[in-house]
Amino acid sequence: MRAAVLSQFGGPQVLQVLDNVGVPQCRPHEVLVRVAAAAVNPLDCRLRAGYGGELYRPQFPLVLGRDLSGEVVAMGSSAQNFVIGTQVFGSIPPASSQGTHAEYVAVPEAHLAEKPSNLSHEEASAISFGALAAWRALFLTGRLAKGDRVLVVGSSSSVGRAAAQLAVAKGCEVVLTRYPCKCFAVTKGKMARCVVCGEHDSKCNDNEEFGSFDVALDTVGSKHSLRHAITLLRRGSGRYITLHGRLPIHVGKNGLLWGGLGAAFDSTRMKALHCACDEIGYRWAMMRHDAHAFAEIVKLVQDGLLDAKTGWTLPLEDVSRAHVLVEGEKTGTGKVVLKLKA
C-alpha cells in the first residue's frame, strides 16, 4: 500500500511516500479501514521534528496521522460493531506507530463511528482528534459545568474551534481570542463571541472588557497566552488548562521512568506556583481515547452542533507540503486534509 513514512526526525522533507508498505493486520478488536481522507494535525508536525523522540525512535519507520474517514474493508475476529462497507470516521491512539496517512489502517472499533451522510470524508476526517482533545481538556481536566464562563485562547486551531462548540452546547458563555488578527464564525450558538488579540494588545488582559472566567483553555502554549489567560481567570476557583504539557518532552529526553518522574515533578511545581501566586488551578490536559467523550462528540456531530472546518485538501504525495502549511499556520481557517481515495 501507499503510505507517508517517517524513518528519521527532521523537517518536512524527511517524509517519504512509499508504494510498498505492508497492509496492517487486524487484531481481534480492530477493523481495517481503507482511508479516504486523513487530517494533518500540529502533533504530526511536532512528532516528525522529534517531539517525544526517545518514545518514538524505537518504533521507526513510523506512519503519522491520527484522524481518518473511510470504509471498513476487513474485521478482526472479535469485531462486531460494523459490517464490511460501512463508512466510518474517528481517530487512532496518540502513541500509535502506524498512523492514518496511508491507504489502509487498523483501528480499534471503539475508536470509530458511522460517518454521518451529510459530511464528506474530508469534513469527517477533520473532527475526531481535535474534538476529543477539547472534550477531555474542558470536561475531564477543567470540570466545566453549565453556566461557566469559558475563555478559549487560540480559537483558530481545530481544538479551539471544537472547544467553543462543545462549551456552547453545554450551555456556557464563551469568549475566544485568536492570533493573528482575523475573526471568523466559530459556533452556531448565540453564546460565543470572538475577540481579536495581538501579543501586545492590552485590551485582551482587561477584566472590565471581558469580566472573569471560570475556565481558560490555552491552545497556544506561549508565555504570553499563559499570562493573558491567568489574568482573566476568577481568583480562587478559576482553572487554567493547557494543551502543551511537558510529559512527552520529559519522556522523549529521559525515557518512560525518569521522564515520567520529571514530568510529575514539573507539573506539581507549576500547580503549586500558580496556586500560591495567582490563586488559580493549573492543569495539563492529556489526550487519549475516551469512549464516553467520543459518543458525546458523535451525537453532537449528528445533531449539527459540532463540525470542523477544512482548509487545504492535498493528495498523499503532497504530505511534505501539508506539514509546511500546518507549521507555517498558512491553513486559512481550517484543517489541512490528505485525500487518499477519489
UniProtKB/TrEMBL annotation:
Annotated Pfam families: ADH_N (PF08240), ADH_zinc_N_2 (PF13602)
Signal sequence interval, chain numbering: none
GO molecular function: oxidoreductase activity
Domain Enoyl reductase (ER) span(s) in chain numbering: 10-338
Official protein name in the record: Predicted protein
Source species: Micromonas pusilla (strain CCMP1545) (Picoplanktonic green alga)
Lineage: Eukaryota, Viridiplantae, Chlorophyta, Mamiellophyceae, Mamiellales
